């Protein structure tokens, strides 16, 4: 069922205090942050070359913290961060969904920007870090703490740009356009808990393998790696496909442990489920085609830029059904491509062959012969 973003937006806007001022909200955040940065950096004097290293170290730490807090608090419900989870996953991801990413008025900043009081809390933390580090080196303390605050403001700025209307001049800037696309993919409801948690620079998404890129209107192309296997099963086409297109029963014929979280029964186009098992690890699947007795097709997305298409096809050969399984995949991440070139491709191909060999052994025990025993 498609989420009613329009209805949620109307309810959220109606709940905003009439006295709320988007310009006061944004203005306070950036003015207060800028004043704190100016204060901290004014403490420096005669900076030595090695002391400038505090700036990239702070940027790396801020980028890592952005990733971890977004992923582990913004998308995982925990008792101590319940308010943050509700504001982020509950409100922000309901207000902005894939295909509906643009704000429509200044009052929508209420659901884009962090609460105004948070910059005060963050500034207090950075001032505390300055006080601690200043006992060792005042220049390092000032540069490090001020850069952390700069990272906070960069987050607020770029995140706001990622929700600008597509035709806005800032949206056309190369880096904004790139990060806007990554953020739009993050807002897809089946991807938001798994991919693209960095907002300013996707360094830790790249390192942790959660960076996912997909061009608009993407479909499988010539660069996909493809492998195909088939077996003959003494059951009708309809029976074979109506069994194999039930992901919650895949564990019955897979030769390795499989865990499926999703709806039971045959899944038709538009259905989603999560898969854990085999070489691929954790995958997010969405079914893109189901023709009863003929074809079932799904797309998966996983770590290290993995995109996978799985097609099940059935045709009649003599008195049996020929089941053909076609797997197409590619990695956009360097680590994934290297691993695939060195060893992963051969293992995936072996697993695919073993999978159908295993099914050929148990198929006629598992696949029903009558409508009364159709799997659910």
Overview of the structural elements:
It is a single chain. The chain has 10 helices and 7 strands. With 376 residues, it is of the alpha+beta class. The chain has 2 domains: 204 residues, no CATH class; 149 residues, START domain (Alpha-D-Glucose-1,6-Bisphosphate, Chain A, domain 4, 2-Layer Sandwich), CATH 3.30.530. It has a 7-stranded antiparallel β-sheet with strand order 1-7-6-5-4-3-2, with helices on one face. Helix 2 runs parallel beside helix 5. The longest helix is centred in the last third of the chain and has 33 residues.
Identify the notable features of this structure and list them briefly:
376 residues; alpha+beta; Alpha-D-Glucose-1,6-Bisphosphate, Chain A, domain 4; 2 domains; 10 helices; disordered C terminus; Polyketide_cyclase/dehydratase; SRPBCC family protein; Fatty_acid_hydroxylase; membrane; START-like_dom_sf
Q: DSSP strand (E) fraction?
A: 15-25%
In DSSP terms, counting alpha (H) and pi (I) runs of 4 or more, how many helices? 10
Poorly predicted runs: 372-376
Class from secondary-structure proportions: alpha+beta
Domain count: 2
SSE order, as H and E? HHHHHHHHEHEEEEEEH
Cα-to-Cα separation, first versus last residue: 20 Å
- The overall pLDDT, averaged over residues, is 90
Question: How many distinct beta strands?
Answer: 7
Relative helix content: 40-55%
Order of the strands making up the biggest sheet:
1-7-6-5-4-3-2
Q: Tell me the major beta sheet.
A: 7 strands, antiparallel
**Rounded radius of gyration (Å):** 26 Å
What is the overall shape?
elongated
InterPro entries: Fatty_acid_hydroxylase (IPR006694), Polyketide_cyclase/dehydratase (IPR019587), START-like_dom_sf (IPR023393)
Pfam families: FA_hydroxylase, Polyketide_cyc2
Transmembrane segments: 20-41, 111-132, 138-155
Protein name: SRPBCC family protein
